[in-house]
Write a structure and sequence with these properties.
This protein is an alpha+beta fold and 68 residues long. The protein contains one helix and six strands. This is Conserved protein.
């Protein structure tokens, strides 16, 4: 089992579930690798992780802009 590669997660409200073990996930906005121990921001609706609050807000605004 690869614990050094990218993990696969299911994102829930305030928690996530590991589907495939790994050391990190990749931010949908920045492409930055986020160690699981540092993961704090994600979208339940979009099922994607973000490196920080700024990336999360940027993605939220992108998606909100396309729903008009």
């Amino acid at each position: 089992m690869d614990t050094q590669g990218e993990a696969e997660l299911v994102y829930g409200d305030g928690e996530f579930r590991i589907v495939r073990r790994g050391a990190f996930v990749t931010c949908k906005v920045t492409g930055r690798k986020i160690p699981l121990s540092e993961l704090k921001y994600w979208s339940v609706a979009l099922q994607e992780p973000y490196a920080d609050a700024e990336a999360s807000l940027k993605r939220h605004l992108e998606v909100a802009g396309t729903e008009k």
